Amino acid sequence: MSLKAKIAEVFNEPGCSTNQAKSETARKKGCSKPLTPGAAAGGCAFDGAKIALQPITDAAHIVHGPIGCEGNAWDNRHSASSGPTLYRTGFTTDLTELDVIHGGEKKLWKAIREVAEAHKPPAIFVYQTCVPAMIGDDVVKVCKAASEKFGLPVIPVDAPGFAGSKNLGNKLAGETLLDYVIGTIEPDDVTPYDINIIGDFNLVGELWYVLPLFERLGIRLRASITGDARYHEIACAHRAKANLLVCSQAMVNVARKMEERWGIPYMDGSFYGVTDVSNVLRGMAGLLVKQGADPELLDRAEALIALEEAKLWERLEKYRPVLSGKKVLLYTGGHKSWSVVSALQELGMTIIKTSVRKATESDKERIKDLMGDDAPMVDAIPPREMYRMLKEGEADIMLSGGRTQFVALKAKRPWLDINQERIHAYAGYQGTLRLVERLALALSSPIWEQVRKPAPWETARMPHPEERSVSKDEAHPSRQPLARLPQGEDILRGVK
Amino acid sequence: MARILPARKACAVNPLKMSAPLGGAMAFMGLDGCLPLLHGSQGCTAFGLVLLVRHYREGIPFQTTAMNEVTTIMGGLDNLEQAVVNIASRARPKVIGICSTGLVETRGEDIPSDLKLIRERHPELAETALIFAPTPDYVGGMEEGWASAVTAMIEALVEPKRARARTQRGRINILAGCHLTPGDIEALQDIVEAFGLEAMVLPDISGSLDGHVPDQYIATTFGGTTVEDIRAMGSAGLTIAVGGHMRGPAEALKERTGVPYVLFDRLTGLGPVDHLVETLSEYSGRPVPEKLKRQRSQLVDAMLDGHFYFGGKKVAIGAEPDLMLALGSWLADMGAELAACVTTTPQTRLAALPAAEVLVGDLADLEAMAEGCDLLVTHSHGRGMAERSGTPFFRAGFPQFDRLGAQHQTLIGYRGARDLIFAVGNLLMEHGHDHVEVAPSRKQFHAAA
Question: What's B297-430's CATH class?
Fold first, then answer.
């Protein structure tokens, strides 16, 4: 299928609630909003595809393109592995000017051979990028020939950057798995308790906060698509009894098509926030029971949820004094925004604004459920406005991704990374505790008082809102340092 | 407010403390044309010399009176006399800095009287300053020995204030504490000079131990504070003393000359440096130069960027009191928790440390207390415990014999604090990821694979 046809198919995703909410004409236009040159900030389709597939830990990932695509992008996420490390090695054909003139197919062929011989991986993913797509390198054909020649799956990922957004890239990666991987190996160890998790990339190993919960219920992970995955697991994923889709926007096509092809039901859920984790455990137990598992699984799930929630709330309580009354600006895409809301609110925090740039209609419904009909949802906040809100104290802390962090920091406000580049694990009950710990640390860091205090020689200056209540003497303990001098004021008069 | 817990063991295991004579001798190394001399057995000098050479990576002029069994019984005068005469004739120093040791202090040598006698017997020593600092090994550590030597320098050389002597307001004295490196002193001088002031540093190891390369062989220290400069300290308008252990020398200088002083407990961190800059601005009557404002802004930015990696981190720190106060308070400023603090002498000023308690102890104590800590800060002897526990290790203090550039490690001023955030923050960042334990099923998978 051509890339164009593939994109059209992905855009017309019946499992996508955003798509379903559209009119027939709007649906034909697809979901790619045209970007505004000069005012766009987001990853490309290649970026999205790479993010989604790279967590397959034992595969080699070769980027066919000039150095910018892989050279600027490798090893920038903390997607953790419980075993193989090959996925963290950056492979690229590093196309040069001559390759552009003569075509890069031969170089790609050699690159595949080198990687296959040196590392003997169970599979190689080959990522198409803009330049070879433009000069007409037929990556699909090269991969097909290489698979036959080298005797291992060599899988083309046809998602060049110009095809669209990062989100589209996620979906094209999903299509790649459906076309080339899932269902290619028959497992011999099927049980009624096998599930797949789709759309989690095991950032900082946070999937391992969640898996033990399933394990305690006797639920087994057939495949994670794709956090901490092995190629073989994903190839067998079609024999799971139920699918859990956690990053609803990224890989909904995988869940829906698996339902279509192999009759595997799926639920949409999230690992962030107490209620969400509980709902996921409850929901997956329900799906498995429907698929033929012993109904007592439901009771065990409820017992586990009750136990873990009680334990967590008890441990969260000590952070209430630090967090209570604090105003939060949540600025990120999609499910992450609403996932953490309930835990923050339970601890007495107020969400003053939450962005819903990438959220679906159902996400928005969830936010309204949690925060009432007048939930302060916004699409995008211009950085200048964001800076003002933080500087003037309308928000006490911002939770966002790395790109907006300096808006908060330069406004001398705490900031917490809740995006993919973060180094802390926030999934599951334990992850919620980590998030709250990090929030409390950020808010109570002693640096804020120091950095907000004006330099002692800056007298005629607007004080930071935090200090308005502090008297001048307190705010400037070193105001009159020489008054403590044995000889008092007479040395203050300057060099004559 | 920290509780100061006294030493609780008979046996020090993996000592943290360096001796007072070593501190005294190091202070003398900050004088120009000086030859430090330990009055004790030759081992007292030899051990110290090895540490100094390894830390500074310089040839260190350092002599001994080489006391032996017989002279210990008969008295050390002859050895001291011979040592002084030999040194004067061979190395022709301007100053011989004599530090006592446990040996001669236990014996009860009256060294000031001995020196008087030696001067009477040797008129050829008239041009050589003989300065004696009492530094028994059994009292205090390096900081105390250093302070004793600086007080001795002031009392021996500074000319008492004469009536109607003119104060040169463009000159200020800096009494540098033992914990300041040559790099620190250079940084401090830069700040002072930015206000059009001339700084007279005592002792100035940035002149002698900063690793410059002379054109000829010199048997004494080269560079450092000159005798003439010390004599004229009374003409300065202000003294800045850095580190609580410099209060004694600052008081001695004030008593002798009337020059007032400002004591800075520390100059590591935003607030303390602001205080210094403001003091200098008010004293000089000059506005804060743009260069310093820019450096301040860079420090603020480093704090913003760096605080993520310090927040809630547990630190184990082993250091002499004033280095402890400087680094410990700074770490707390950045959001770290001082979970284990071990120091060398029970100085009451340590109560100001933002920690629950400070133990007077050794590195074995620190190792026991440091379990679960995220960072270890101490001198190079901490490397054993760092290896055993796998804790990230930041070397600070003396000695640092397994690293290059210890003499230029700069911990003070806006730029020092900025770079310190980067150096320590990088260590913390390297180990800063959450470590989620691999789920049991994934472990099995890995084992099977």
Answer: alpha beta
Contact B64, B139 (CB under 8 A): no
Give A449-462 pLDDT, tens digit per residue: 999 999 998 865 54
Collect all residues of chain B within an 8 Å Cβ-Cβ radius of residue A445: 307, 311, 334-335
What distance in Å separates the CA atoms of residue B401 and residue A253, rounded to the nearest whole number?
A: 61
Rounded CA separation B22/B133 (Å)? 12
Residues A318-325: what's their mean pLDDT?
93
Rounded distance, CA A72 to CA A475, Å? 45
Q: Which of A84, A457, A491 lies nearest to residue B278, judging by beta carbons?
A: A457
Last residue of some domain: A127, A151, A180?
A180
Are residues B335 and A450, on separate chains, in Cβ contact within 8 Å? no
Split chain B (449 residues) into runs of 10 and give each run's mean pLDDT.
88 92 96 95 91 92 92 93 95 96 92 96 96 95 97 96 81 97 97 96 94 84 94 95 98 96 97 97 96 97 96 97 98 97 96 96 95 96 94 96 94 97 96 87 65
Length of chain A equals 496
Where a domain ends, among A400, A423, A445? A445
CATH (domain of A92): 3.40.50.1980
The reply to whether A456 touches chain B by the CB within 8 Å rule is yes
Q: Do A450 and B442 touch (CB under 8 A)?
A: no
Q: Which residues of B touch A215 (CB under 8 A)?
A: 439-441
**DSSP per-residue string spanning A13-77:** -TT-HHHHTS-HHHHHT-S-PPP-TTS----BHHHHHHHHHTTBTTSEEEEES-HHHHHTTTT-S
Residues on chain A touching B441 (C-beta within 8 angstroms): 211, 215, 220-221
Percent of chain A with pLDDT over 70: 85
Please give the single-letter amino acid code of residue B415. Answer: R
- Residue B191 near residue B277, CB atoms below 8 Å: yes
Q: Is A176 exposed, middle or buried (0-12, 13-18, 19+ CB in 10 A)?
A: buried
Tokens coding B12: 């020090």
Pairwise CB contact (< 8 Å): A491 & B238: yes
The structure tokens listed for B377 are 């800060």
Q: Count chain A–chain B contacts defined by CB atoms under 8 A.
A: 144
Whole-structure pTM value = 0.85
Gap between the Cα atoms of B400 and A213, Å rounded = 49
Query: Taking CB atoms and an 8 Å limit, are B439 and A212 in contact across chains?
Result: yes
The answer to whether residue A13 sits within a structural domain is: yes
Each residue of B228-273: pLDDT tens digit?
999 999 999 999 999 999 999 999 999 999 999 999 999 999 999 9
Task: For residue B196, give the nearest of A409, A453, A495 by CB distance.
Answer: A495
Number of continuous H segments (helices) and E segments (strands) in chain B: 18, 14
- The top-level CATH class assigned to B20-155 is alpha beta
Interface test with B, best of A77, A78, A82 (most B CBs within 10 A): A82
Domain that holds residue A289: 194-315
Contact list, A487 vs chain B (CB under 8 Å): 258, 260
| A311 half-sphere exposure, CB direction, 13 A CA radius | 10
Q: What is the DSSP string of A325-338?
A: T-EEEEE--THHHH
Looking at domain B168-292, its CATH architecture is 3-Layer(aba) Sandwich (3.40)
The token duo for B54 is 């390894």
For residue A434, list chain B residues with Cβ-Cβ distance below 8 A: 434
Beta strand A60-64 pairing with A91-92? parallel
Looking at the complex, does the CB of residue A481 fall below 8 Å from at least one CB of chain B?
Answer: yes
